[in-house]
Specification:
The protein has 247 residues and is α/β, with parallel strands linked by helices. The chain has helices at residues 2-11, 23-26, 40-43, 46-49, 52-57, 59-75, 80-91, 105-109, 173-185, 203-210, 237-240, and strands at residues 16-20, 95-99, 115-116, 125-126, 160-161, 188-192, 214-218, 231-233. The longest helix is centred in the first third of the chain and has 17 residues, at 59-75. Bound molecules: 2'-O-acetyl adenosine-5-diphosphoribose (OAD).
């Protein structure tokens, strides 16, 4: 019943935002952050790996960990949920995909221009001049836990860092601005596979709700976003999203 209601809301929408988190890629084999046992933050200390201070203190540890994650993401394939998001954009052209994920599975499934609020595993940049040297994470096939020295910038010689947003850092301004504008102007926002606890990204579905959009949540578990969701679909991205694509 609620699945039918959600599908009807999507079918009637003119502008849809799809807001995704790590659960979107879980069925592709990419680990989430906060799931018990399997989540990355259950197994690793974010403070040692995902802050500017951690990179400064031990660049080889941090670069090796991101190189391992990049290798896993590269080996993963988009799942039926990613493909449904791309099909939704084909059916409703005014669809904006806003992702917290640093993998490229939305792009590989066919989404044209997903907004990456937390950066990308595949866009390393120099800590000095901010340049984006190409293909640096491709250099090695890292194992879990292997330390790898980060490359040096070809222009200025400074260390190259992963192109992701770390704790304590600002989100990319243009991406955040575009996401907020899309959320404020949509009829329907789908929030998929996110715990909704990391700000400012977690504001995006709340902005849509405040602006009067219907919020549809796809998640096997309860989250703080239940409170702003018009329809809560308890299930996984790959099983539920295909049913929300207009025929
Ligand atoms: P989390 O790990 O916090 O939450 C993942 C959510 O996905 C949970 O609510 C799960 O219940 C749900 N989930 C698990 N499997 C699913 C499936 N197959 N289908 C649908 N949902 C599923 O991940 P995020 O919310 O993305 O930030 O985390 C937000 C940010 O915290 C990340 O972008 C990252 C992290 O620290 C940075 O690195 C800056």
């Amino acid at each position: 019943m609620s699945l039918e209601r959600a599908a009807a809301l999507v079918a009637a929408a003119r502008h849809v935002v799809v807001f995704t988190g790590a659960g979107m890629s879980a069925e592709s084999g990419v680990p989430t952050f906060r799931d018990d046992l399997t989540g990355l933050w259950a197994r690793y200390d974010a403070g040692n790996l995902a802050t500017p201070e951690a990179f400064h203190a031990d660049p080889d540890l941090v670069w090796g960990w991101y190189a391992w994650r990049a290798a896993r993401a590269r080996a993963a394939e988009p799942n039926a949920g990613h493909r449904a998001v791309a099909a939704l954009e084909a059916a409703i052209p005014a669809t904006t995909v806003v992702t917290q994920n640093v993998d490229d599975l939305h792009e590989r499934a066919g989404s044209t221009a997903p907004i990456h609020l937390h950066g990308s595993l595949f866009a390393p940049r120099c800590v000095g001049d901010g340049a984006h040297p190409a293909a640096l994470i491709d250099a090695e096939e890292p194992d879990e836990g292997r330390r790898i020295a980060p490359p040096r910038c070809v222009t200025c010689g400074a260390l190259v860092r992963p192109g992701v947003v770390w704790f304590g850092e600002a989100l990319p301004e243009a991406a955040l601005h575009a996401a907020v504008a899309a959320a404020a102007g949509c009829d329907v926002l789908l929030t998929v596979g996110t715990s909704g606890v990391v700000y400012p990204a977690a504001e995006i579905p709340r902005i849509a709700a405040r602006a009067g959009a219907a919020v549809i949540q796809v998640n096997p578990d309860a989250t703080p976003l239940d409170a702003v969701s018009t329809v809560n679909l308890r299930g996984t991205a790959a099983t539920l999203l295909p049913a929300l694509v207009p025929a």
